[in-house]
Amino acid sequence: MAHARSLMESARQFHPDLEHYVILVDRPEGFFDPQGEPFTILQSTDLDIPNSRWFHFKYTILELCTAVKPYGLLHLLERLRFDFVIYLDPDILLLGDLNELTSRLQSASMIVTPHVTEPIYDGQRPCELDFLRAGVYNLGFLAISRTPEALAYLHWWRERLHDYCVVDLPRGLFLDQRWADLAPCFISHLDILRDPAYNVAYWNLGQRQIDSSDGKFLVNGSPIRFFHFSGFDPYDLNCLSKHQNRIEVRGHPALRALLEHYAEQLFAHGHEECRRWPYAYGFFNNGAPIPDLGRSVHMERKDILDSIEDPFSDEGYRACVAVWNEQIVQRNGSEVSRLGYRLYHAREELDSAMPDIFGGHFRDFFRWLRFGARQDRELPYGFLSHVGNCDGREPDNPTNKKEISAPSLTRLAGQIYHKRPYLRAVFPEPAGKDRVKYLAWLLSYGHEQHNLPRPCLDAVQQHWTSVLNDLPNWRTRFWYRTVMRAWAVHARVSPVADRFQPPALRLSRFVKPIRALLKGLRGGRKNTASSGKTGSLPRA
Questions:
Q1: Among 303, 388, 372, 283, CA closest to 338
Q2: Helices 454-469 and 411-419, packing angle to 10 deg
Q3: What global pTM score does this model have?
Q4: 123-154 tens-digit pLDDT
Q5: CB 232 within 8 A of CB 91
Q6: Mind giving me the DSSP string for 146-170?
């Protein structure tokens, strides 16, 4: 709320003639009086949102605050009949007037600002890849007029954001911004504002210079119109934003002065008090917190939308906990709850440290769920009361203890495994009981298919040697070495398609590869050298 108050005060300073509205995605009861604020408050529950209770439940606070945007804009343009609306995120501060925007809206249906207007070469974050993932335009700012094509776009946008305003980078989704990449396709009068004075922020400061003169802040020598303090913590004035590593505040005195000015504004408008207020949609009615990773429960059990009208109710609480604690069962008998599985995939470090949670790493992951997950995510015990079936036991058909203690897959081995779906069927536990077979494939067919460079191959070879030495006896070790060499020769003399699946480890299936091995040995060193390849980056 302190951010919104600071923004609205700066808006009144430069534009006292305009109406000022704040969309509140929360409930003010007991914390502040909406009538006492010098601006009009529209609560998100007052907007025309279908199935509003589920809408407020299924999104995190970040997702919800962006998902309500088209609903709020249409309310102002269609119901209240404003000619235009200038939307600004609450972590923005006006430092100049926006008269140019109101003039441009006479001919434009919508105005947006791109994240960057020049190529980036310094290798710092955020980079161009980040903008491709998050969206071309930053929608912390958006100006839109009441034209037929703008209203048609808002109706389309509203429909998409009702269900797909999520942070899901693997599916190409990032809140409302990725959808706005299609705006130039739908809006013929789209104005892309490249003026460096607008929407100045951490993502474009590598291309702009901040200065100050006579108490005013300048960018590239001109007055800043508004600055976007995304990711800024007023308690840490040495950090511009938690989302970047490009700009060091210590080397920019004018930027430091601007951050100090904004921090003073926030504290003057009650930031110390507001930050302690609970988020209304962060809890069930019974007071239990809602884990963000479980909010999309309706996607796993679509019937819950019809059977539960209010997900925040006691009935909704019981239904959600029941779904979160449903067990995902693997063929070896190990079980992990749905919420536990979501926690695992949300943490990249867990995926690296324990890539085989249904096999060799089941016990380690189970212990982490029992002790680390609740402490880390502050989840009540009921949400993880049935995280797995281990209870001190090994899962059925447990992996050899020596194999469990062996090193996890290298990053390259893991990447290749996850990018080739057929490998998951052939080697379901690449860091567990199938580890030795998967590494044998990687050193043979994988080496040929991906043209692995020598340093990468050496790391895989060291991993293979370590795993091989942990096998129980010399006969098993000799057998796997023979198999790997047969596969390697077969891969060189008879290249295979990407969908190749290695044969089962039975002697009758290896007659042809072993014959190929003998033929390769008879070919001498010349034949062996000619079959080698120079390294290059691995191909996906």
A1: 388
A2: 100
A3: 0.71
A4: 899 999 999 999 999 999 999 999 999 999 99
A5: yes
A6: --HHHHHHHHHHHHHHHHH-SEEGG
